[in-house]
Amino acid sequence: ETPVIENGKTVAVVGSLTDISERKRAEEAQRFSEERYRALFRDNPTMIVTLDEELMMLSVNPVCARQLGYTIDELEGQSVLKLFHDDDRAAVSDQLQRCLQHPTQVYRWQFRKVRKDGELLWVEEIAQAIHDLNGVINILVVCQDITERKRAEEALRKSELKLARIFHS
Predict the structure, then answer these.
(1) Residue ranges of the alpha helices (H) in the chain?
(2) Has residue 162 got a pLDDT over 80?
(3) Residue 95 contacts by C-beta under 8 Å, 6 or more apart in sequence?
(4) Residue 25: its pLDDT value, please?
(5) CA torsion sign, 56 to 62 to 64 to 67?
(6) CA atoms within 13 A of residue 147's CA, in its CB half-sphere
(7) Is the pLDDT of residue 146 over 70?
(8) Is the pTM of this model over 0.85?
């Protein structure tokens, strides 16, 4: 602001107004985007992981870390393959490479993961290669614990086998 002085008296003050409505709209859009991100990623009840092309975990949501018995910091920056049963690692790696080679495809599979405490966890995963804001390709993996379903399937299989043995006797 600059005062206008005539005959030693201030007769006006000249200033400028800056329209900040565009900046306010941008701040509101960013806040909305951040809240939506939290709802979709952080607060999502399913396990979500993003991977880089080297299969290193870029981001892990809290549910995923908790279900696997880790903290987020213990997982991010590590190879996702460390989470899988030894017998499944090669197949998981092949599936993830297939995702990278065919980014328009959505892939689904079931494998065993190993929790930090050593307990096995069956998971069904849906994965797709996506591009981040910088155009770099990542893999988005959404994962569901299907351990109880696998146990029920195994119990049913054993029961059917036992019944078949009795029948053939």
Answers:
(1) 21-37, 62-68, 72-75, 89-101, 147-168
(2) no
(3) 107, 109, 127
(4) 81
(5) positive
(6) 11
(7) yes
(8) no
